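Protein record
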Amino acid sequence: MRTILKNGFSFAIFAHIAVLTGCASTAKEEIISKPNLGHLQSLIFKNSPPPQIETVEQIFSVSPEMKQYVSRRFDKVPDANKRVDILAKDFFSSEQLNLSYVHNANLTAAETFQSKTANCVSLSILAYVLSTEARLEPQFKYVDVPENWVYKDGISMLNEHVNVTITSLKSDRIAEIPLKLTIDFFKQETSDVINTFSLNKNEMTALYYNNKGADALINRNNQLAFWYFKKAIEFGPAFSSPWVNLGVLLRRFNLQKEAETAFKYAIAIDDKNSNALENLAFLYKDNDKKFEARKIMAQLQKVREKNPYYHAMLGELYYEQKKYQRSIDAFNKALEMKPDVDSFKKGLVKSYKAFLYEKNSEQISNSINLERPVINSAQLD
């Protein structure tokens, strides 16, 4: 999920303008009214007709090819535990579904099945549909992990994560003990998982719409983004991320007051939403409320200073700005905290290569130990 901080299921988005919301500095006694989406719609888009977006039925639809797959693989497997095992293996088997991870593959179940690409949201939706067809019991799960970002072309995308568990039904299995397996692209390390909690179908639908809205926002399809965020809020009223992303969209139309209300409403839903906080800080900074902005950023810095993914995001940011020394420092900091993350190592290598003369790039690439980078930036001065 993405949140634009401009941002990931699979995902909320934030860009440099930031699609993160949350404001711990908002007074507890302050009452934030829910923004009127109908008013915002007429204010921005006047009488423009709404765009066509996927219905719930389309998101979770079962194509004829999917029905054929389920029939071929499970009609002759009476034991539900065995069906769970087969389906879990099929998702990544080169001889069966053979799904590949693509971070922006925000697709319906049928589209995912056909394209064989998915992110965590679309994989979970496909797993839900296929397991239901195979007479199994699926359960969506939200996986709370430390903040981590993807930074590309001026946009920081905050990645959130979901998956699905599949369990055999008691009435349809031979063994007394049910088999429960998790369908996920990634094996989450225990140390990375803060908490998990169940999601219902409506909430997963909200995450799908939020991801689609984030894509539209990145592509500057503002009206489509608005309607996706509106649907995300309708299906997931307890989620703060769509309000954050909506606030980012409102800033695009210079609706600063309305954006501030959206960010604060996101915070009212979840006062620990650091993306909301950061976006609100950016808004304050741009509107001469520098004291309030600094206060929020100081709060965030205390928390993020301990997060290796935050330093890696800074490394990418500095790299894009051609501040290679600072990029090296940031990636080194990330690797000190979490030395086995390949993306940190690759970021360090590319930053180090860019720092040196181009003629030495190949030599440097061959000399760096990717298993255990030990570059000390102080030696590069």
